[in-house]
């Protein structure tokens, strides 16, 4: 049985990647893992929104605000995973062949996805490309770019 890993975040682009993959692999004998890496900062180490440069957040020194922000991020991730699961099921993939994983970031999003790719024995990975500007992607390296450059022994689908 083929094993496909679909790495998603909470963006519309990642759900487009799920839809694209579902259109190609629907009704086939395939196992699909929807995988989301959840950022969870060590408690007490983040005190200002500036400490999270890649996240659109606004809080300054309030632990309560930070906890609320983390909670909303977790709920958004769970909603995105459920939407992705429904898209796959609607495309004809059997529920028992759909696995949903929400993982706390350990080494960074791209590295965590690559670890899941390798450890899960997946032969294909699907990622969406975010709308970051070309210069920003060049300077920081997007998750999709890192996966393209470091994934081995598998097919890599990058969905616009």
Quick take:
With 160 residues, the chain is α/β, with parallel strands linked by helices.
Provide a descriptive summary of the structure in words.
It is a single chain. By secondary structure, the protein is of the alpha/beta class. It has one domain: HUPs (Rossmann fold, 3-Layer(aba) Sandwich), CATH 3.40.50. It contains five helices and five strands. A five-stranded parallel sheet has the order 3-2-1-4-5, with helices on both faces. α1 (12-25) packs parallel to α2 and α3 packs across α5 (143-150). The longest helix has 28 residues, at 63-90. The radius of gyration is 16 Å and the shape is globular.
Shape: globular
Q: Give me the CATH superfamily.
A: HUPs
CATH topology label: Rossmann fold
Q: What number of structural domains do the residues give? A: 1
Estimate the strand proportion.
Answer: 15-25%
Widest β-sheet, arrangement of strands: 3-2-1-4-5
Brief descriptors of the model:
globular; 5 helices; Rossmann fold; 160 residues; 20% strand; alpha/beta
Secondary structure elements and pairings:
Layout (H helix, E strand, L loop, with lengths): L1 E6 L4 H14 L4 E9 L24 H28 L7 E7 L4 H11 L4 E5 L5 H7 L2 H8 L4 E5 L1
Parallel strand pairs: 1-2, 1-4, 2-3, 4-5
